[in-house]
Q: What sequence folds into this?
């Protein structure tokens, strides 16, 4: 199945629930929470999409390595493909699970994680 490229932060993204989508966003892993935000500049804009991918942080540690000494272990731009679904809490409207692709960009380098 070819994923639909979509802005998962748009008002119409909910129309694609259950669909495999591909998007570009900033991955933020802080504490026990992994979310996508529109960009590193818009981290405080309030728009988040949960990421549900068991073992993702360990996989990232093996392939890339986390940020040391900062407030977040990961805060990088990614291209990600997964299934768009409702969030598990009311804080976020959407979640992304069943990841089939995740490419992380850091300091001009591209890391294929999944």
A:
């Amino acid at each position: 199945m070819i994923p639909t490229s979509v802005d998962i932060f748009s008002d119409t993204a909910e129309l694609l629930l259950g669909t495999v989508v591909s998007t570009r966003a900033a991955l933020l892993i802080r504490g026990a929470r992994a979310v996508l935000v529109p960009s590193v500049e818009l981290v405080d804009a309030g728009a988040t999409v949960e990421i549900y991918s068991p073992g993702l942080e360990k996989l990232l540690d093996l392939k890339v390595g986390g940020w040391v000494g900062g407030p977040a272990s990961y805060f990088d731009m990614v291209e990600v493909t997964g299934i768009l679904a409702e969030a598990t809490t009311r804080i976020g409207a959407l979640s992304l699970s069943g990841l089939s692709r995740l490419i992380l960009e850091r300091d001009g380098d591209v890391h294929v994680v999944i």
The beta strands are 4-5, 20-30, 33-37, 49-52, 74-86, 94-106, 109-112. The longest strand covers residues 74-86.
